[in-house]
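Example record used in the benchmark description.
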Amino acid sequence: MSAVFLGVRHHSPACARLVERTVAELRPAQVLIEGPAEMNDRLDELLLGHELPVAVFSHYRDGQRAATSWAPLCDYSPEWVALRAGRAAGAEVRFIDLPAWHPAFAERTNRYADAEARYAEAMERLCRRFAVDSSDALWDRLFEVEPDGGLAERLDAYFALVRGDAEADEGDRARETYMAAWVRAAVEAAGERPVLVVTGGFHQPALRALAGSGARKGAENDGWELGPDGWPVVPAPPDDALAGSFLVPYSFRKLDAFAGYQSGMPSPGYYQQVWEAGPEAAADGLLRRVVERLRARKYPVSTAGLIAARSLAEGLTALRGHPSPARIDVLDGLAGALITDDLDQPLPWTGRGTLTAGTHPAVVEMVAACGGDRTGRLHPETPAPPLVHDVAAQLAALALDGGPEATYRLDLTDAVDLERSRVLHRLRVLGIPGQVRTAGPAHGVDPVFTERWEAQPVLGREAALVEAGAYGATLAEAAAVALAERTRSGATEADGLARALFDAVLCGMDGFSEQLLDELSSCVGELQVSGPLGEVLATALGLWRHDRVFGMARGPLLAAVIDGATERLLWLLEGARGSSGVDFPRLRAVVAVRDAVLHAPELLSVTREVAAGIAGRISEDPEAPIDLRGASFGLARSLGRVPGSPDASGNPAEAVRTVARAGTDALGDWLAGLFALARDEVTGAVGDDGDGPGGGAESLIDVLDGLVSALSDNEFLSGLPALRQAFTFFPPRERDRIAARLLERRGVRGSSRSLLRTTADPLLMGRARALEESVSRLLARYELEATP
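Model output (structure tokens):
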């Protein structure tokens, strides 16, 4: 006897009922189901008595790629009904699809992502023919609200039209030839008894053609090996890969197309009611739930409004020719009766996709009522990955299993509390709900040594732990692999890299994960912006030099980052080209390079001499930004090289005179760079006799005083903002000493504070002076000066 093919839509109550009836009528010897074949030895695990929805979570990881996917099952999934009813009827039940790690699934994260969505031309024609807005409304019209008589024939015609002459992609072809090999083997094993094949409807026409002969030779020609028992061999992952499948709790929210689910029916809560009680009861229940939700949120819904919504839904059902109310009949009726505002966008059930910002509050509640809030629960005997057991043991050993209301205050200088902090941070990095940090150090050199963790909702914790098991068998390993993956994906974003670096510190990853070490050190070599990369270097260097809390001082994790960031920054800085103004993040990056070369030379591939040479070239490059030229001049002096032309002799005073010829704005920007890097080196002991390291025979301050005093009023007002900005790099005590030096040069006795503390903002005073001069010139032009 040949195979009977049932093409279904995943998560359709109508298809689930058809599968249940077909199994009861056919009494097949074999029931073959689209699902992961590697689970065939664990079908008893699927039937332990879970509260649905649940999903088969599969993961794969090797040196080149990482992939995860889910195969969700709910009460009205045809695949679940086929499994349960087939077992009850005494049939041999098998999953026949490729493992989720197989390249045939490529980037697909959902095994049951509808193939029909990728071949939309036929769907568009059908929607126009039946005057509906979306494929979901079309499906309801053709199948969910129609009588069950003739359902199999209608499904065959529908899927044949959807598939049409469309050429399946390479992944679908691989899956279909593999599933066809299972069908041929099952037909041969069943003898005269029937074989029932339940797959997504898009695959049904191809499977009929591929498996029609039932010949063993055909399976061999498809390239799939048969085992000694006559069944296709389940492909095994490569030896160097980590792969596995586990059951996880699922939820209606994850199943809902409005929340981003890739397949099947939207509004799972509504269709659960259709499955349990039929479309009439589901429509009544939806009306009631929507009104209850709206009233709970203080949205005005009167009894008259409810009656109007019910009447509209009934009228739309009749007008559209539906024998029973469809989901869109009820939703359109509710929207028409309860929403009086103008809507800025189409109602979400007229298409597919997630809800967008600005969706009307009543519409949000309608979609939520349709979605439902059910969350599945696994049977207590369900096997779990090693990570789940490791986490439970660590939480118990560290007294972190205090329940849903627990709050923890941790002293990071205490060894036990530090380990507790690391465990909580590892869970945070893996996205495990349960605790959220509300206080603690914000970055690597933040002088905060305590943390506070507070309870958060634990919904989805069990599933999250199982899914995190894809990263490793222990909590430390899993967190390290997750951080390495995050680092790789955010390699071009310095902010993301800095966060990943600090998370690694908080998790205590130093010296543990070679993969994380490699990712961090290589990613710093790909960043394109000097400012954020400087922040990464400064943070890493500060921890490497000074950390006494997290155990990162002199550690290899930070050493690799420091070396890579310093080398990359020198390359980026030498390639920078001119723009006016002061780039403070870039100046901080130059400071970080200086500190790395001075305080961690043993970590660097770049020698002090090479770094000083690069700084000297930048300082003399006329195309480099003027502030960076000043900073590079200061960097070269800090590293022991004296830049500049022979007549300048590296003397800051002579360099200042040269730069001043370009204007006071340029001078202020150049000084800002210089003062950011080498304030002490170039100013010396300000206020002494001029013999400090900054000046020799004359100090830089004396030179600047002479240059500024020689400026015209207009030149001074023009350059004042830039000059004032440059001197913000001096702390108050040093500014006080500079003011004292200026008073001394003028032979004025008195407190230097009189120069530092004015009655108004100097810039405001400057602008007022300029305005007065402009008005005076205008009056003079028109001979309107006042008579003395």
